[in-house]
Design a protein that fits this description.
Elements lengths: L1 E6 L5 E8 L33 H11 L3 E5 L5 E8 L6 H10 L1
Antiparallel strand pairs: 1-2, 2-4, 3-4
EC number: 2.7.13.3
Protein name: histidine kinase
Organism: Bifidobacterium canis
């Protein structure tokens, strides 16, 4: 597994790539795997025992922070790309929650 992170050219987003040397995910399945209880295509003997919630939680968290997660083509293997804003917009209620947590 390889983890890479960098700031995009505009300086407004952090891009993190998590690359696993496993099998590629077919393009027609890529959006479905971010839905709850959906597992990727498995081959015989490759069952992970997962519940199909991990990627949906990752998508929820990224979206909550104003970002996104998706699968990108990469010759090295499966590449999950997470894009998050460098300076997420926090509204007044968010700021109060952060301040009260300190």
């Amino acid at each position: 597994m390889v983890v890479e992170a960098h700031v995009d050219h505009s300086g407004e987003h952090v891009i993190t790539n998590i690359i696993n040397s496993g099998s590629q995910i077919p393009k027609d399945v890529r959006q479905k795997i971010f839905q709850r209880f959906v597992k990727g295509i498995t081959t015989r003997g490759s069952e992970s025992g997962g519940t199909g919630l991990g990627l949906s939680i990752a998508k929820w968290a990224a979206t909550l922070h104003g970002g996104s997660i998706h699968v990108v083509d990469d010759a090295r293997g499966v590449n999950f790309e997470i894009v998050l804003p460098m300076h997420p917009h926090l509204d007044h209620d968010d700021m109060q929650q952060l301040e009260s947590a300190e």
